[in-house]
Amino acid sequence: MLPLLRRLRLGQTVRDVGPQSHLQKSGTPTMGGVLFLLAATVATLAFGPRDDLAWTAIGFTWANGLIGLADDYIKVRMHRPLGVRARTKLALGILAGLGLALLAIGPLDVGTAVRVPFSAHLWHLGAGEFVLLVVIVSIATTNAVNLTD
């Protein structure tokens, strides 16, 4: 797949500011996240349940993936190394997290209790606290994935 991305000139543009070591990333194929989205979706549909929770997870993953795709597209095709503005990415991520949280406490009815890792303790959150937690965790997780890319 990398040769195809190189042939299509879907390479990364690197900003002039920042560490010198990042300059070697110039031309590195980008937009490969779409392949991971497709693979994860196919695997989920092939081997996972096809219930509302699975469809919600797929939708949330694609929502965040499309934000990344738009970011990569702007970097590559419009030659803007910064891609989508940080404020816009944050706003879209918050909307995706809000959508996920509202689906969870609404139609999916998964409840607002949260299990504390490595213990048997269960926190019973109110709807507002649960929504805030889901948004914060979804933004943090998405940014962690983006930073490792």
From TrEMBL:
Location within or outside the cell: Membrane
Listed GO MF terms: phosphotransferase activity, for other substituted phosphate groups
GO cellular component: plasma membrane
Family annotation (InterPro entries): Glycosyl_transferase_4, PNAcMuramoyl-5peptid_Trfase_CS
A Pfam family annotated for this UniProt entry: Glycos_transf_4
Keyword Transferase carried by entry: yes
Chief location: membrane
Keyword Secreted: no
Membrane topology recorded in Swiss-Prot or TrEMBL: Multi-pass membrane protein
Residues passing through the membrane, by range: 30-47, 53-70, 90-110, 122-145
Alphabetical list of PANTHER family matching this protein: PHOSPHO-N-ACETYLMURAMOYL-PENTAPEPTIDE-TRANSFERASE, PHOSPHO-N-ACETYLMURAMOYL-PENTAPEPTIDE-TRANSFERASE HOMOLOG
Protein name as it appears in the record: Phospho-N-acetylmuramoyl-pentapeptide-transferase
